[in-house]
Design a protein that fits this description.
By secondary structure, the chain is an alpha/beta fold. The protein has helices spanning 2-21, 39-52, 66-75, 88-92, 110-115, 140-146, 154-167, 181-191, 193-200, 202-211, 225-238, 251-260, 273-279, 320-330, 333-343, 360-369, 385-396, 403-416, and strands at 27-33, 56-62, 82-83, 127-139, 172-175, 263-269, 287-290, 302-313, 371-373. Strands 1, 2, 3, 4, 5, 6, 7, 8 and 9 form a 9-stranded mixed sheet that branches.
Length: 420
């Protein structure tokens, strides 16, 4: 009996290492995202990837207020291996890996690579998979019934919204989704930063934001851009041209109101189209797209035409090979085609052909007709679109005595980020 036990023990000790050597250790990569529209789709892609690569575990974390959650993560030394949350401040801190020599650039539009290029170093610390457009979406049938067209001045814009209110008292002329603060922050991106980009050009405005040399376009100039914006938004509120719950309504509320015909116009990007059609397929041919009119005289209407869906890789990740294996899978033409059609925006990859939107003709017209602007990627992280949106929440709830007080408050936060 003792001999048998000794033999069994020797056998087990001999076999266990062999069994262990046959098992492949798994690698976990932490993927942090803030894309509200694609959580379910992303989870499905990750599941398919892991079926092919069981040795790589992708932990996908999504946060609605991603820009501020990212700041908390970085403050505690927790840097995700892969993220969609990228700002100039994060790049300056050396958080992200240099992607300049990656093979995927050969498949991407040169213009997108330019927009992904860091002005300080000439390197690329992020990669974008898409081009997006942003502006004002409107109910085509409603506008046609009233004989309305794209507003090219602020007065024309107010007149359009007033016409909607008069003809359709139960319809919200412009529906704001202020509880999701990033949707309000985009108003500053378009109506304020957009004029700076129009005045200085894209390269010039990027450098001016980076160096905080805005001159007469600075945010605290009396009678200037930011004061004009605040006054314009308060005008819409005073005239009942935005929803009374503009500060508490959610992004979902905004989509539902537009899809149901309860709202005539919303401010968004192409990422919203798929969700609207999903809510109401009859809207497929009833979604119009137009520009943001300038809040100051002397400027032209603007539409966003910029890089979208960016990724950045941690400079200190210990799982670089696994991260790039996942990105290689994610960047496959078939998967990117799905993504384009889900989000309703064209691909930045030249080898991806997608039927990306039923309103592509309308969007193309607007992009060709009006001034094109980009995202304010060089703005300080202390004023992310979420942060800017929270200031607008305060503006709409009466926290500032005058539009100029709002402009000064914004400028103080902006300038403090530069040590001014």
């Amino acid at each position: 009996m003792k001999i048998r036990l000794i033999f069994l023990s020797i056998f087990v000790l001999a076999v266990l290492p062999l069994a262990a050597s046959g098992q492949k250790d798994s690698t976990q990569i932490d993927f942090f995202s803030g894309r509200v529209e694609t959580v379910e789709w992303t989870e499905g892609v990750i599941a398919d990837f892991q079926a092919l690569h069981p040795d790589i575990i992708v932990e996908h974390e999504y946060q609605n207020d991603a820009s501020n959650v990212m700041k908390i993560k970085l403050a505690s030394g927790e840097v995700p291996d892969l993220t969609t949350v990228v700002t100039q401040d994060f790049i300056d801190q050396g958080i992200f890996q240099d992607l300049s020599d990656e093979a995927f650039w050969g498949r991407l539009l040169p213009s997108v690579k330019d927009l992904c290029t860091d002005l300080k170093t000439g390197k690329q610390y992020k990669v974008a998979t898409n081009v997006t457009m942003g502006g004002l979406f409107y109910n085509k049938a409603m506008f046609a019934d009233l004989g309305l067209k794209d507003a090219e001045t602020w007065d024309e814009f107010v007149a359009n919204l007033s016409a909607v209110k008069k003809a359709n008292p139960d319809v919200t002329p412009l529906f704001l989704a202020g509880k999701d603060s990033w949707t309000l922050g985009h108003l500053i991106e378009f109506w304020v930063h957009g004029i700076i980009k129009q005045e200085l050009g894209i390269p010039g405005s990027r450098q001016a934001f980076l160096d905080n040399e805005l001159g007469d376009l600075a945010f605290d100039v009396p009678g200037g851009l930011m004061e004009s914006f605040a006054a314009a938004l308060l005008e819409l509120q005073a005239k009942g041209l935005i929803n009374s719950d503009a500060v508490t309504a959610t992004y979902d509320n905004q989509k539902e109101a537009f899809a149901s015909g309860e709202a005539a116009m919303i401010n968004q990007g192409m990422w919203v189209v798929g969700d609207i059609i999903k809510l109401n397929p009859a809207m497929t041919r009833n979604i119009g797209f137009g520009p943001f009119p300038p809040v100051m005289d002397g400027y032209r209407p603007m539409v966003l035409c910029a890089e979208d869906s960016v990724f950045a890789v941690s400079a200190n990740t210990e799982n670089s090979d696994a991260v790039f294996t996942f990105l290689d899978y994610l960047f496959q033409p078939g998967i990117q085609k799905e993504y384009c059609e889900l989000r309703g925006m064209p691909s930045a990859f030249t080898d991806v052909k997608a039927d990306w939107s039923p309103i592509s003709a309308d969007v193309s017209r607007a992009v060709k007709t009006y001034v094109n602007i980009n995202f304010s990627t060089e703005a300080p992280s202390a004023l992310s679109v979420d942060d800017a949106g929270r200031l607008i929440q305060e503006l709409l709830t009466g926290a500032y005595d005058t539009p100029y007080e709002f402009a000064k408050g914004y400028a103080e936060i902006w300038n403090s980020a530069y040590g001014n």
